[in-house]
Amino acid sequence: MKLVTAIIKPFRFDDVKEALRQAGAVGLTVSEVQGFGRQRGHTEVYRGAEYTVDLVPKLRIEVLVADENADALVGAVIGAGHTGKIGDGKVWVTHLEEVIRIRTGERGVEAL
Amino acid sequence: MKLVTAIIKPFRFDDVKEALRQAGAVGLTVSEVQGFGRQRGHTEVYRGAEYTVDLVPKLRIEVLVADENADALVGAVIGAGHTGKIGDGKVWVTHLEEVIRIRTGERGVEAL
Amino acid sequence: MKLVTAIIKPFRFDDVKEALRQAGAVGLTVSEVQGFGRQRGHTEVYRGAEYTVDLVPKLRIEVLVADENADALVGAVIGAGHTGKIGDGKVWVTHLEEVIRIRTGERGVEAL
Amino acid sequence: MSAGDTAWVLGSAGLVLFMTPGLALFYGGMVRAQHVLAIIMQCFICMGIVSVAWVVVGFSLAFGHDAGGGLIGNLGLVGLRHLSQGVPGMHLDIPPLAFVAFQMMFAIITPALIAGGTADRLRFPGFFVFIVIWLLVVYCPIAHWSFSPSGWLAHGGSLDFAGGTVVEINSGFSALAAVIVVGRRKGWPHDAMAPHSLPLTLLGAGILWFGWFGFNAGSALAANSVAAQALVNTQLAAATGLLGWLIAERLKGGRATTLGAASGAVAGMVAITPAAGYVGSMPALAIGFAAGVICLLAVQLKLRLSYDDSLDVFAIHGMGGVIGMLLLGVFATRSIDPAGANGLASGGGWALLGHEALSVVSCAAYAFCATWVVAKVVNRLVGLRVSDADEIEGLDTTQHSERAYSGLGSAQLGSK
Amino acid sequence: MSAGDTAWVLGSAGLVLFMTPGLALFYGGMVRAQHVLAIIMQCFICMGIVSVAWVVVGFSLAFGHDAGGGLIGNLGLVGLRHLSQGVPGMHLDIPPLAFVAFQMMFAIITPALIAGGTADRLRFPGFFVFIVIWLLVVYCPIAHWSFSPSGWLAHGGSLDFAGGTVVEINSGFSALAAVIVVGRRKGWPHDAMAPHSLPLTLLGAGILWFGWFGFNAGSALAANSVAAQALVNTQLAAATGLLGWLIAERLKGGRATTLGAASGAVAGMVAITPAAGYVGSMPALAIGFAAGVICLLAVQLKLRLSYDDSLDVFAIHGMGGVIGMLLLGVFATRSIDPAGANGLASGGGWALLGHEALSVVSCAAYAFCATWVVAKVVNRLVGLRVSDADEIEGLDTTQHSERAYSGLGSAQLGSK
Amino acid sequence: MSAGDTAWVLGSAGLVLFMTPGLALFYGGMVRAQHVLAIIMQCFICMGIVSVAWVVVGFSLAFGHDAGGGLIGNLGLVGLRHLSQGVPGMHLDIPPLAFVAFQMMFAIITPALIAGGTADRLRFPGFFVFIVIWLLVVYCPIAHWSFSPSGWLAHGGSLDFAGGTVVEINSGFSALAAVIVVGRRKGWPHDAMAPHSLPLTLLGAGILWFGWFGFNAGSALAANSVAAQALVNTQLAAATGLLGWLIAERLKGGRATTLGAASGAVAGMVAITPAAGYVGSMPALAIGFAAGVICLLAVQLKLRLSYDDSLDVFAIHGMGGVIGMLLLGVFATRSIDPAGANGLASGGGWALLGHEALSVVSCAAYAFCATWVVAKVVNRLVGLRVSDADEIEGLDTTQHSERAYSGLGSAQLGSK
Ligand SMILES: Nc1ncnc2c1ncn2[C@@H]1O[C@H](COP(=O)(O)OP(=O)(O)O)[C@@H](O)[C@H]1O
Ligand SMILES: Nc1ncnc2c1ncn2[C@@H]1O[C@H](COP(=O)(O)OP(=O)(O)O)[C@@H](O)[C@H]1O
Ligand SMILES: Nc1ncnc2c1ncn2[C@@H]1O[C@H](COP(=O)(O)OP(=O)(O)O)[C@@H](O)[C@H]1O
């Protein structure tokens, strides 16, 4: 089993989710994060005090997937998350030792 | 060292935390996430515009654990997080190369 | 490729970020989490009802890094996140199978 | 007709209306985020349906010519007919409609107060039906008793300047009955149910405080020295209620809390409500302080007796109203308002205190019993309580198809 | 000069001013979190620039001696000169400055209302320039027509108690024109754009409701029985507007929503605005209800016709204003305000309805056309629309270098 | 006694009271989320303790018969005794209690303003003690000097319509002293400390704007043409203060910010406070504009001089008050209020400007020095500053055992 984790631009989420579904993902988990990288942040000014905010809002998506499907999901994220502008984010793959569905106790591919 | 990650229903958190403690976890880290899966979301309506919200609030729990305790913690999550209704979530186990406690620099099991 | 994950005290973030940059990290992703561990929480009282809140606000930082740099980043986190008081948090390292930059499709070290 | 008095009463009517959105926020901040819209809606629906019911029939039941025994008004003023002949038994130098409007706002906020008791578990349709019946069956009679010159309590010598019985005791004891009928929230008292936004609650408290000047000082129905005294007393009782609650918190070994400050101020204003235009400034300090301390203690009752009065309507409005009515019997003095009476401490003997006690007992008993019956009936016919699943998910999405705050995973991430 | 009337009008001026921050929150809660400060700012800037423009020249254009044909005032009162001689054609028993202040608040909120239509996509400098020109070219003439005794509509026999044309129809049709000029938001109507904070919106609605008493009842310019009737009517129309919207939501198969309650109440108050001091309480119930139902339906128009009126200014203010003006032609009666007129249902025949229809058509047409031209010109010269990238990032950071809420990844985590 | 004037002053008292919760939100939005309840509490506690202290002794010290030299009132009115004989030296056609109430609200908001300077680092018990002593030792004398007819400044010919010295200069210079005594926040000025909720701050600004009409126009103590002028001036100065601040932001190369709009409006209203009923509309535009620009520049002072005035009380209230007092010396004219005086620009020569300058210097000096002593003493005896650990964790949990917002990891997740 693998875990595909992606950091994407928030406004790409709907498309990425759709692409993942079409690539066979039956579920996913998403959270709000802040990213720091090449993409420039912005400046905020409060009563003259200037703050350079170099963190940019991103979404973090996690998808559990059978080993053989990982590449397809990575491809889906890249396809749908891509805008070509700096800050599109990253996707990475981790090996998992075990995945269990809490409701049923099913393990591995059955748990998805 | 292992990392046990669980996605659970928010209202099960207290019980899951208690179960993890009793199974030997000395600490954990938790965050708010949104899940998409078999569980149906709900519909929202704003001045007649209908939105189907298919994301459901979940909590994501991470527990660092010694290799031999991982199974016990997974069991604890399943036991306490289980309601039997769709949407109970998943739990998975990852292998870690290293764990360090920032305060002391202790490594491995000592770091827990 | 490795993923360095750290749980730190929020007010150490600026220093940790700076230390990570100096240790060679070009980016990172951060999110708000709540930690439970040795550090005591606090008590809240609402119209006489007392709640013991044992969760403490923390930040969770993820840094993707080339294998050979992982140790340096771990050291940077420990150096800058350290206050010596209980609750400084943990840092751990995971092996990744693949990292891709969404914008370009570059893989591995190129993706950072 | 006095333009000055009219300006004051119209302005006061506006202030009292503003209290209901204020209450919505006061309550809304105290509940959990998945239930906040539901409680706000319960307040707003009172602004809707009660206004209509009031002009159609409620005003006539409360302030119409007595239908017999001082128990209720007749239907002579239905639809505000014959209003140009004035309000029966009252000598107003303001337009009768100004009085109708002013009293309408009282009729709106009283049922909205009840919603705090049953927060986080009511079906919206059930609440809607409950409120309409409750207004006619519980509110209008009590308003007639205490506010109409022909009401048996007012006529008998009981004083209630601005609604200690009609609004406070009434809402408090009605909430208690409703709470008993609908039962406890799932998880209460074991689960933590912390307020989701205290700044919202404090904002609501600020609006209530501001509006209460209209509520109490407006009840003088004139811009005169009684109104000035009522305004000062409102401020002072709010202040000492706030201080009393905080001091009690410290004495109990805790810290002074902002929710305590807001609660104590409200308790103080509740208690001064019946007395505002009848007592002097120094007694007002005492009345507020007593309410601040005693209401804090009364909040603990629910744990002892195991009823789940979510936002402590009984402890603060019910008990606060009782305190105010009884202390009015002690401190009232004709030197403030010659139309009032002298209480125990002003050489008036026990008479007034007796009248006030009678008012307390009769209004509390009627409110509790009648509300119990109404709630039971509505629960049977329409259903007052949501399902367990809906209660866990939250009333906002399940009752109103809305979410209060849209961040991640919000509709922003949904699709149309 | 009457102190009572002066107190009432000054207080009302304050209430109407308070509506603009209220509107800012009402609107602010409905937009997404990255755009909330921008819409609040658009309301506050009206409080800034319109106030100045009003005393410098606007008041004179609206209420100065007629410059000819009842179309616009002359420059005789520029800088509030000669005001001590009173407002031309009006017999006030309040200080003329009180009238200036009261009317100033109307001039402030009207352009602020427009901002709801074009929410989430305007450049701030463009909006600023637009507002100044719009005030002088669109608002002042229409205010002269309907509010000044020498205006061609008022003089001709049209009634508009508190701004059904000047404020409501004007803002609604102007918003429609502005929306057409600046185009749709990126992603509309496919992307979900849920309100980011409904409690903020409900708070705003509460403030609007409270302030509207000053708006309508203050327009009596005296604390008398007309003012009392106007206040009661405002309350009743708000109530039935709220109920009408919720009932329509249920009939359409959905649940009653809090945003619907707020929207319906506003729609009801919009519709009663022109009629508030001219009709009785029972017609007020009907006017509010009609507005609640019809405005809900009107909201759907934008999907049919594909214009992106973000916060439904046309549906609620434009259509609500039309409904109110026409029903005023039906229900007006001299028995409420002898200075008014009798409508169709009061035996006055079709005359008044004709006048009202003429007002509706001429004000709507002028507002739409003139605003279209102004927006086109400003768009060409200054630029009204932000870039796509700025629209995605959000107006708050790109137009104002601020973020509404600082949590994680907020400036707290930034460096100085 | 005039019902119209009474209605206006009572209503104004309500408006001024409402400013304090407004201030709580204005401030609360500007601090970080872990400190928001603490600053709100500091405002609410003033509503509690100051009200009591005011009727018990404060009013007598401020407005009682002069105890000698125009420096302070005697104890003749302690506990509001002998009030029926009127307020010494004043000829009011309102109930004396209405005046007591109106002035009470000024005494409440002034110490609350100071809390903005020392935000995010005070122990609650220390603040409480500080406020009580400060009220009696600093506020009451200055109020006597400027507001009581027997005060040495008022008697000597200084004008201060609504509290340019008593409220604004006093709070500004007192805050500066308090800030110096308690020292800088940990991390200031290096750490980013962005406002956690600007919508809250803008809401607060809206409430302040609304309430300021009562503050300034209510100070006429009558509903007359002076009140109308004061209301118009308040609006205009707020407007040009807002515009001035935004224009200065643009000229400095930045964007117009919503916090700037709110700050500029407040600065404008601060500056017009002493002048509101003494100058005409056009000077009001100038006074507000000057304040908007100069206060923005004054904010930068703290970085130069390294004092940490968290929410810029000195820059906005201190400097704004100075600007207003001095420009009053320039623009005052008897044509607005015959009881006033003519300033430099109205042919009155330098006399009034001299009086105003004397007021500024003496009030500023006394406020600064006396507050410095009081803060030092309280700091020694009770302790004003929290520990570093508490400051990092946040004042809300450590001082009040509460959290403002409960989301994840909130008490919802805690156990009972
Ligand atoms: N080394 C890294 N470790 C973890 N997350 C990273 C890393 N580098 C970038 N990210 C995440 O990816 C996002 C995009 O990265 P950025 O460098 O801005 O653009 P791009 O990936 O297009 O080159 C960042 O905002 C951050 O969330
Ligand atoms: N493939 C997946 N990858 C990541 N998270 C998943 C995946 N499938 C489900 N989840 C998470 O688990 C939660 C529950 O899944 P769901 O399919 O609704 O119910 P169940 O696990 O009971 O079958 C989801 O809301 C989501 O957070
Ligand atoms: N076993 C664990 N698994 C996951 N996170 C942990 C674990 N133990 C601690 N943490 C995280 O580290 C934080 C600090 O841990 P704590 O035990 O309080 O202090 P310390 O690490 O200094 O001993 C916790 O708040 C929690 O977020």
Describe the structure.
The complex is a heterohexamer, with three copies of chain A (112 residues) and three copies of chain D (416 residues). Chain A has 112 residues and is of the alpha+beta class. In chain A, 20% of the residues lie in helices and 41% in strands. Chain A is built from two helices and seven strands. In chain A, strand 3 (42-46) and strand 4 form a beta hairpin. The mean pLDDT of chain A is 95. Chain D is built from 14 helices and no strands. Chain D has helices spanning 3-30, 36-63, 96-114, 124-147, 152-156, 164-182, 198-217, 225-251, 258-272, 281-305, 313-331, 351-381, 388-393, 395-400. In chain D, helix 4 packs antiparallel against helix 6 (164-182), helix 6 runs antiparallel to helix 11 (313-331) and helix 9 (258-272) packs across helix 10 (281-305). The model of chain D is unreliable at 408-416 (pLDDT under 50). The A-E interface holds A 11, 14, 33-34, 41-46, 49-57 and E 191, 392-393, 397-398, 401-403, 408-411, 413-416. One adenosine-5'-diphosphate sits between chains B (7, 35-39, 56, 58, 86-90) and A (25-29, 62-64, 101, 103, 112).
